[in-house]
Amino acid sequence: MKKLVVNVDESKDKNLLGKRVVAPLDIVVNSPTTVVDQDGRLLVVIDSFDDKDLPYVRSFLPHINYQNNLRLANFQGGFEQLRTSDMSFGYRPYKPLFGMPSGALDFNKKYANWFNRLNDMTERVTEIYETISSDCFNRHKTMAQDIRPEWLLKGGVFSQGIINNSVQHSYHYDRGNFKNTMSAMIVLKHKSTGGWLNLPALGVTLATEDSCIVFFDGQKILHGVTPIVNRYTSSKRFSIVWYTLAKMVNSLSADDEINKIRKTDLKKHRKNS
Ligand SMILES: [Fe+2]
Predict the structure, then answer these.
(1) Are 66 and 86 within 8 A, CB to CB?
(2) pLDDT, tens digit, for every residue of 1-39?
(3) What is the rounded distance in angstroms from the CA atom of residue 25 to the CA atom of residue 47?
(4) Residues 126, 13: Cα–Cα separation, whole Å
(5) CA of residue 223 to ligand 1 center, whole Å
(6) Distance, CA 119 to ligand 1 centroid (Å)?
(7) How far apart are CA 262 and CA 194, in angstroms?
(8) Number of H helices and number of E strands within the chain?
(9) CATH assignment of 2-91+103-272?
(10) How many whole angstroms from 146 Cα to the centroid of ligand 1?
(11) d(CA 206, CA 45)
């Protein structure tokens, strides 16, 4: 694996936040590489990924009923609508505003077989995480031990994953995850070009081609996706991203989560009557 030492310069990040990635003129990393800063601190790892479950996962990804949304992205001084199409799997924290207890996401039940395969793949991804940075992995694993095991995916580190269906995310920071940990991302492509990951502060664009895996701290490092070119109706660019939501440490057992909602509902009812 190659090693790339970069100068981290975050001075342009603020200006880029929310903007669409156009054509970054940065170093293109297109082979297995670890990116480190001048002090040798690990920033990013990109490698090729293979797994026994990969062909099956690849076959079902186009058949998921993704949730489509529109978001505003800053583009050439104005705003444009950015289409998102994604679906999450794994476990979600308590949502007091919606009166929703912590629990399994719909994906797990709706696509139970597919979820099981993704969960098996999560275990493999977690094993790779341990090999690329035992320091970061052990810190992450220790934090995850504060989450009840039933709210973690296989491997015992990540609580949730998201599948993005050809989404060209503008520059952003991830939010809500454990601090100082890495997320994992796998990219799967079919007749699709572009869709690389630009990290402006590092002066690096990761050439995320089919079957690659990337680890980095998306809460610390601003990142965005370069234009995705899908020339055919069958063209697809999927990314699967794994992370751990910090709020999961507050999640109780499934029964206690339901009881918590019942008590809250009862309080509201008494207040209103
Ligand atoms: Fe992200």
Answers:
(1) yes
(2) 999 999 999 999 999 998 889 876 789 999 999 999 999
(3) 22
(4) 30
(5) 6
(6) 20
(7) 49
(8) 6, 16
(9) 3.60.130.30
(10) 24
(11) 10
